[in-house]
């Protein structure tokens, strides 16, 4: 075995497999943010489907019949009537979605920046490259995550069926995947992918451009180097508010 191969085996995993490490780091950061903010997403969805169901049944009298009003009262009502842990009901498909989406877009962006576009002579990544790279990374990340996004939406819609007194269609996340696959085939898992990637492209045009700007600032103005720690800090500064995306 050659000396370079021996030296490579002694390197930390984050240096031996930087892309995989960044995928896992982005996925973990997205998971933590999703767990922290999911109750807000759940209460927002519950308010939306409650209003739609009430309108369908009662028309103009829907407002007076609504059991929940406002985000705080909705969250308290769910915790008191259904149990505190029900505030995280349906979090599994959301976590799946964010691991695939966040990891996929960050790895794609890093690859585009380092391999496809490349940095300028001053080692700075030009703004126009950040914009194009961010849009392309958003497209790839959302396309990969579309099946998990679809299941997340379908599982959230189960709440509306329950309010309307209809039977539930899915027993869980894996049953939802299996049923969608059985009814629509592989293509069925990518239903609605076109508007999803269009939205993701616009979101990441700003999101990842900001990430690169923050990372470049940290490298130039702090003792931090361009490594996995700087990547994680930059991602947390611009990514935590995207958890309910």
From TrEMBL:
Keyword Iron-sulfur: no
Domain of life: Eukaryota
Entry GO CC: mitochondrial inner membrane
Identification of the protein by name: Solute carrier family 25 member 27
Solcar repeat intervals: 21-115, 125-217
Keywords attached to this entry: Membrane, Mitochondrion, Mitochondrion inner membrane, Repeat, Transmembrane, Transmembrane helix, Transport
Main location (coarse class): mitochondrion
The family this protein is said to belong to: Belongs to the mitochondrial carrier (TC 2.A.29) family.
SUPFAM superfamilies attached to this UniProt entry: Mitochondrial carrier (SSF103506)
Species name: Catagonus wagneri (Chacoan peccary)
Xref: Pfam families: Mito_carr
Subcellular location: Mitochondrion inner membrane
PROSITE patterns listed in its UniProt record: SOLCAR
InterPro entries noted in UniProt: MCP_dom_sf (IPR023395), MCP_transmembrane (IPR018108), Mito_Metabolite_Transporter (IPR050391)
Topology term for the membrane: Multi-pass membrane protein
